[in-house]
Amino acid sequence: MAENVLSAEPTHSRWNRALPPRLRIAPGDTVHLECQDASGAQVQPGMTVDGFLAIDRGRIHALTGPIFVQGAESGDVLQVDVLEVVHKGWGWSSVITGLGFLKERFAEPYLFHWQLDGAVSKSLAPAVVPLRPFCGVMGVAPAEDGEFRTRPPGVFGGNMDVRELCGGATLYLPVLNSGALFSAGDAHAAQGDGEVCINGIECPTDVRLRFHLHKQRPLAGPLIESAASRSQDAGDDAWIVVESGTNAIAAARAATSRMIDLLAERWGFSEVHAYLLCSVAMHLRLSQVVNEPMFTVSAALPKHVLPLRRLF
Q: How far from each other are the two terminal CA atoms of the chain, in whole angstroms?
C-alpha cells in the first residue's frame, strides 16, 4: 500500500481518454494531490474584477491527473476514499455575465475574496460560513474518443459539485477505460446545494485519496457514501445516488429509480416498498443548477434508516 505524491502541474482542463497518465498506482495505494483553484492559479488574492475578466477561461477546472489504477478495466468499480481535503487559507467567488442561476438579475461581473480561518470564514460579515472543503470535480475518463470540456458532468462523474464529497466520504465510479484514468480538482471550501452564483468558495487545496478496485461490479453512475454526520442534518450521513442530465426533472427521476434499484438489490426490499421508503425518507436535492445545459441531482437516503451494509 504505497503513498504517492502528485503535484498539480501540468494540469488539464479537458477529459480525454488519450491523455497519458501522470501517475500509476496499485489498488490500495494513497495519493496526495496538489490541486490548484478552478482558475488554474490565475486568480490571486487581491485581484481586481478587471483582472479576473482577463483570465484564460479555457483553463477553468485545472484538474490534477490522470491517475492510472493498475488492473482497472471497463465494467469494474473504482472506489475513491476521500481521506482529507485541506484549504490553503484563501478563496474567491464570482458573478460572471451570462452565467449562474439568476443570470438575468445579476448581469454585472463581480469578484469576492474570502479569508479562510480554519473551519469558518467571516469574510462576508455578519455571516459566519462553515467550511467543509471538497473537490467539485472527481471523475474517470469518459468512454468515448475525443476531447471534452470539463464543465458537463456525466456517468463518469466529473463536475458534479456534490458538497458531500468532503473528507470522510467515499465515491464509487464505474470504470470506463483501462486504468480508470482518474482526475480531480475544482475544490471548494464551502458550497450550498445548487451553487447558484456559478461558484462555491473556489480555493487551492491539498487532497489525500485512497483507491480501491472492485472487479466486474455493475454501476450505472456515481454513488457516494457520505462522511459521518457533523450536524443534526440526518442527510449528512447517507447513501447518495448522483444523476446528471439536461432535464432536471428527468435526472431526479433517474436518481430516484437508481435508489430504488439499490434498495432492492442490496437490502432486499421489494421495489414498491423501496419506492415508499424513498417517499418518506429520501432527500432529493439539486446539487448544481449552473452547469447548463447539464443539471445534477442527488438522491440521499440517511444511513440510520437502514441496516449497516458494505456495498462493495
A: 19
Residue 19's nearest CA partner among 178, 239, 188, 252 is 178
Q: Do the Cβ atoms of 162 and 298 come closer than 8 Å?
A: yes
Three-state secondary-structure class, residue 272? helix
Q: Which three cell numbers stand for residue 284?
A: 432529493
Per residue in 261-280, pLDDT (tens digit) is 999 999 999 999 999 999 99
Q: Which three cell numbers stand for residue 18?
A: 488519450
User: DSSP class of residue 236?
Assistant: G
- For 146-185, what is each residue's pLDDT tens digit? 999 999 999 999 999 999 999 999 999 999 999 999 999 9
Give the residue from 30, 66, 211 showing the smallest Cα distance to 140. Answer: 66
Contacts of 51 (CB under 8 A, 6+ apart): none
Q: What nine digits make up the cell of 231?
A: 450536524
